Amino acid sequence: FDATYTMAWLLAQDSLDFEGEKLPRGRMLLLGGDQVYPTAGPVAYEDRFIGPFAAALPETAAPGAPDLYALPGNHDWYDGLVSFLRVFCTRDGNIGGWQTRQRRSYFAVKLPHDWWIWGIDIQLDTYIDDTQLDYFRRQPVKEGDKVILLTAKPAWVKALAGKVDPPSWRYLSFFEERILRASGARLVATLTGDLHHYARYEPAADDEPTRLTAGGGGAYLSGTHTLYPELHVRSLDRDESETVTYTREQIYPRAPDSSRLANGILGLARLNPQFAGLLGAVYAGFGVAMLGALADGTGGLFHTATAN
């Protein structure tokens, strides 16, 4: 509750001061997945999402309530998306003072000046279903319109040159090339959460999108010191020898801070002796079981098979 309420309280303020400048509250709030952690369900949504957000911005009759759109992440899918659809896709729904507008687990929002926001449901790294693809094909985008694409996973950080592309990247690349670019629109940025840090990768090619991970509102902080300084990414419609180089521009936490925090695991026994003792007991139990299996002759872990 506390971590979620902290983020919700900041989002709910009429304005925030930043280096002497007042930043007004956004008219639209976009949630990038994993709204409930670690597992979805009616009670978890009430206690860990609806409760904190409604407390931070209570419902009022005043006009000008901000809109809210959400994507499902893998944790939202753990109950088959039942709770997500009930919370975010109900007609004329609200979560505190935020108004829900979507009717599906994906959405397209037209912005001023020929900008769009498209949010796709990657459905636990499976093929994007035909109904969803048809929905985006029907969007009235014009040649040259600019699109910010929201997805629930930073698939590009695992799409490394010389290695088999992960399914999440193949499906994302398919959508970017065959649906979004095929419409004539320009993909300007791909934005995601999932990993609980901030990372911005900029492309060497002008016609490629900026790729951002902005998952800092989660239950814990993910390391950044293991992120590659450069990515060499091959899209679906490029030859194997053709890759786009992405350079890591900004990260949070900074790499030295991330490395220092990661090394804190060495102090686990002192910080949480009960948990360290539990882990030790589990490993000791496995060790005894393995030794017993190894010493058990032909019925053990290893046995000799003889051919007739």
Question: What is the secondary structure topology, with strand pairs?
Answer:
Elements: H1 2-12, E1 15-18, E2 21-24, E3 28-31, H2 42-56, E4 67-70, H3 82-88, E5 94-95, E6 98-100, E7 107-111, E8 115-119, H4 130-137, E9 146-150, H5 167-180, E10 186-192, E11 198-203, E12 210-214, E13 230-233, E14 244-252, H6 255-262, H7 268-271, H8 273-294
Helix pairs in contact: 1-2
Radius of gyration: 23 Å
Which stretches are poorly predicted, pLDDT < 50 over at least 5 residues?
none
The residue fraction in helices comes out at 25-40%
- Terminal Cα separation, in Å? 65 Å
Main sheet record: 8 strands, mixed
Write down the oligomeric state: single chain
Mean pLDDT: 90
Number of strands: 14
Number of contiguous helices: 8
What structural category characterises the helix and strand content? alpha/beta
Shape verdict: globular
Strand order of the largest sheet: 7-8-9-10-12-11-14-13
- Listing every helix as H and every strand as E from the N terminus to the C terminus, the arrangement reads HEEEHEHEEEEHEHEEEEEHHH
Strand content: 15-25%
